[in-house]
Design a protein that fits this description.
mainly alpha; globular
């Protein structure tokens, strides 16, 4: 019989694991924020293009990262059982599947302009977006490998290295993007191409650092992660694939909701799309905290599930949810009280279109306050469900919530009912709220 752990110990354990992951997610997000700020200073069309291109890259990345995310609960559960061999097998095949997915997706990036034009985007924006993706798309494989290694290390509670490596990436990206976008320090002025090159370099550098750490740190050598890496393990690959593809589809459903909103915002206008991108960056920064807590909940739920400790599973879930709710309340307050300085930080006052972007962005942040809590609860529920290896039913719930409820609601409110961009974001609120309710019910009905 397992010893009962107090809520305060659960909170400390969750925060010890989650805070570095939160820092890592915030740092990772700041890579995109850096590009948004710099290109906001560079030009409105360039900003709108990279908002569109980066969100498209992210949608495909999220789909492919299902295999990487499956590694986290699988490794955590194997550690809970004391099975070191399975740790290596699961992580290695996660890396294999990530490489395969990256190879399959690059043709989409190369032909991005035709896709964006078919989706109703303006020709100049579509051309800039393709310029970005033809370069940044080469980073899909290293980005997915980095995600897999981060999941592997997080499951082993090695989250500090994840944080410090991501902070290093932020510094490299800031310097390179600043030089290559504007042509500073003797570098050529490359605009959106410069931002793409910086992103690609950062992904490769991050991968090299994490591979070295996973292979050479003495405490991790016992797992022999890269030993005979070229040898397939079809059984383990099948396990990672079966758990991972529903995670990827679930992520695709959610990110597709936001991408569809961005595309529909592009139909309304370039200024509205630019404001949407800025407001979404701010909301996403807050979401990174909830995501980090969700990742910590996944690892702790996986450990408890592997050890057969149902009491710790339930109590740990309650604590993780409470921590996420507390932060969500703080963010709702911030979005409602200080929207103007948050949006203005992304804009150049000298740009004649900045005032219009600011005015519309402030309205969107009020909508972000509405969906903040729903977004927090749906990602927390997903993290807990993944910890107990429940991924297929959440995938169905996500498809219904986002594609059968969220997107139709957004379109109906924005266009037939005439609410425009505000209506699009109200659709986000509706879809995310439905997902939060159904997924939380799914977890607690099982736990």
């Amino acid at each position: 019989m397992s010893k009962t752990i107090s809520y305060s110990r659960h909170a400390r354990a969750t925060l010890n694991l989650g805070l570095p992951l939160i820092g890592s997610h915030l740092a990772q997000m700041s890579l995109h924020v850096t590009d948004t700020v710099l290109l906001g200073w560079y030009g409105v069309s360039e900003l709108a293009a990279v908002v569109l291109a980066a969100s498209s890259f992210f949608v495909i990345f999220i789909f492919g990262s299902g295999f990487a995310q499956a590694v986290m609960p699988m490794v955590a559960s194997a550690v809970g059982r004391g099975d070191e061999v399975q740790v290596r097998r699961d992580a290695r095949m996660g890396l294999w599947l990530s490489i395969g997915f990256g190879l399959l997706t690059y043709p989409l990036f190369w032909n991005a302009k035709a896709v964006f034009l078919a989706l109703g985007q303006q020709p100049e924006v579509a051309a800039f977006a393709q310029d970005f993706l033809r370069i940044a798309g080469l980073g899909m494989i290293p980005a997915l490998l980095v995600m897999t290694l981060k999941s592997y290390l997080a499951a082993l509670e090695r989250t500090q290295v994840v944080l410090w490596t991501t902070l290093l990436a932020v510094g490299v990206n800031l310097a390179l993007a600043y030089a290559l976008i504007f042509g500073h320090w003797g570098a050529p002025e490359l605009g959106v191409r410069g931002a793409a090159i910086a992103s690609l370099v950062v992904q490769v550098v991050t991968l090299v650092v994490l591979v070295f750490y996973a292979a050479w740190v003495p405490e991790l050598r016992k797992f022999h992660l890269f030993q005979r890496f070229w040898r397939p393990d079809w059984q383990a690959m099948g396990l990672v694939f079966r758990l991972g593809w529903p995670i990827g589809v679930t992520g695709l459903m959610e990110s597709g909701l936001f991408q569809a909103t961005a595309l529909m915002m592009g139909w309304i206008g370039t200024v509205e799309l630019a404001a949407h991108g800025i407001a979404m960056e701010i909301a996403a920064l807050a979401f990174m905290v909830h995501l980090g807590l969700s990742n910590a909940a996944t690892v702790r739920a996986g450990r408890a599930e592997g050890a057969g400790d149902r009491v710790s599973l339930r109590d740990g879930a309650k604590v993780a949810i409470a921590l996420s709710v507390g932060f969500g309340v703080a963010m709702v307050t911030l979005f409602l009280v200080l929207p103007t300085p948050l949006i203005a930080a992304f804009l150049d006052e000298a740009n004649p279109e900045s005032a219009a972007i600011l005015a519309f962005g402030v309205k969107l942040l009020a909508m972000a306050a509405l969906f903040q809590m729903a977004d927090a609860m749906q990602v927390m529920a997903l993290g807990l469900l993944r910890g107990v290896k429940d991924t297929r039913v959440p995938m169905v719930a996500a498809a219904i919530s986002y594609w059968l409820i969220g997107i139709p609601s957004a379109y109906l409110l924005a266009f037939p009912l005439g609410l425009g961009g505000i209506g699009l974001w109200l659709g986000l609120v509706i879809g995310l709220s439905f997902a939060a309710i159904t997924m939380m019910w799914r977890f607690w009905s099982r736990a």
